[in-house]
Fold this protein.
Amino acid sequence: MVGPARPQFVLFGSSIVQLSYSNGGWGAMLSDIYARKLSYSNGGWGAMLSDIYARKADILLRGYYGWNSRRALQVLDQVFPKDASVQPSLVIVYFGGNDSMGSHSSGLGPHVPLPEYIENMKKIARHLQSLSDSIRIIFLTCPPVNEEKVCGTTSGIFSELVRTNELCGQYSEACIKVGQETGVKVIDLFSAFQRSDDWMNACFTDGIHLSAEGSKIVVEEILKVLKSAEWKPCLHWKSVPTEFSEDSSYDLVAADGKRTLNPSEWTFHREIQRD
C-alpha cells in the first residue's frame, strides 16, 4: 500500500460495477483494462467518483461481469476478509440485474429466484456490517432496461436473454425492503432512471449497461445519500479532508505577483460542478 492512508470506498457488484471505469481519460482506460487484475481510476460512474474524491479517498473496484448474488456470497470472505488490517469506510453494492433475468430451461444461467436473492442480499449486508462498527453500506437497486434494445442486440453467441422491466422492478423493490430490514441505505435506481427524459435511449449503451448519462444519475444519487446521511464522520466529498492541502510557495504565482494560488481544491476541470 502507498501512503498516506485514505478512506477506502469499495464498489462491489456485477458488470454495472466492472464497467464503471470504462471510457474517458487514460487513468480510467487503465482501470478498465486492468479490471479484475489490479484495482484502480472520466467515463463511468466509478471513474466519476474517483475524480470527485481525488486526494480524499481511494475508490477500489471489485466488479465481476455477469455475476449474481449467489456468486457474490461464494467470494464474500475473500473480497471482504474479517481479519483485514484496514476495513473500508464505505461499500457500495450492486447485485440484482443478472439475478432478475428469466430462468433458462436448462437450469443454467445467472437467474436467482427472488426469495433466494432476498436472503443473499441480507447475508451480504450482515457480513459487511460485521467488519467494523464504522463501515457504511449503500445498496443500488436494479435500474430499468431498454427492453427493445436488449432484444435487438442479442447475438448468436447467447441463448435468449430475458430481461424485462417487470422483473427488474420486482427485484428492485425487494432490494429496498432488504435495506429497510437491515438498516442499509438503498438507492432506487429503477425509479431514478425513469425520472430522466428519454431515459431508454440516453442512459444505456446496449439497453442494459450504463452510458455516461446513466452514470451521472448514479453519481448524483450516491452523493445525495452521502450528503444527507447522518454518518460520523461524514463521507460527502466536501467533508472529507483533502490530502496535502496546505499552502506552498511552490504553487503557481497569482497575477499580482505577491502570492501563490493553492490548487488543491480546484474543480474547474469537471463538466458538472457538483454540490
Notes: The longest strand covers residues 8-13. The two ends are 31 Å apart (CA to CA).
